[in-house]
Amino acid sequence: DAGVIQSPRHEVTEMGQEVTLRCKPISGHDYLFWYRQTMMRGLELLIYFNNNVPIDDSGMPEDRFSAKMPNASFSTLKIQPSEPRDSAVYFCASSRKFSGNTIYFGEGSWLTVV
Amino acid sequence: GESVGLHLPTLSVQEGDNSIINCAYSNSASDYFIWYKQESGKGPQFIIDIRSNMDKRQGQRVTVLLNKTVKHLSLQIAATQPGDSAVYFCAESFGNEKLTFGTGTRLTIIP
What we know:
The complex is a heterodimer. Chain A is mostly beta strands. Helix content of chain A is 0%, strand content 54%.
């Protein structure tokens, strides 16, 4: 079975540029999560969707961040404009249920903003 | 200048020995727990889970122990191998609440 697929795996961009990260969840999973991982803060939940609908975006740092899920097999996380402090690894994950069920992670998108 | 970041507990174990990684969770009402393994440059990978109605669960070379009295979770890895070197995270959830991840423990297997 294909796992969660993320792209790009690595991105280096200049401050002020728009960054779009993409995710394809595991087929049949109703929940999709976007996490950010940094040395300073560890693994943080940014936003999650249930059946393509955003449920909780309280973890999104600020208005520069936005996420969409136009269909069950695709989601994007966009940063506009990007800043150096956004440099981190962004993970997409999916699961069948919200809690009490295993969340499966993608390999991550390693973002560096210079 | 000095960098400030999360201070990950570290554990070094000789190859072939058993290792025990500990996790103190925060919510006494948590009813589901997961251990994840994260290798360098990769995403967290599911290892094993346990529900609060159990106190022990075994997988292949791994055992998770749950002590609800002291809110403690442990992951035992038997006969460690170089490929076990990674950061290990515990995560907890309660009811419909989201998973909460710990800061992780770095395990290094010494050949």
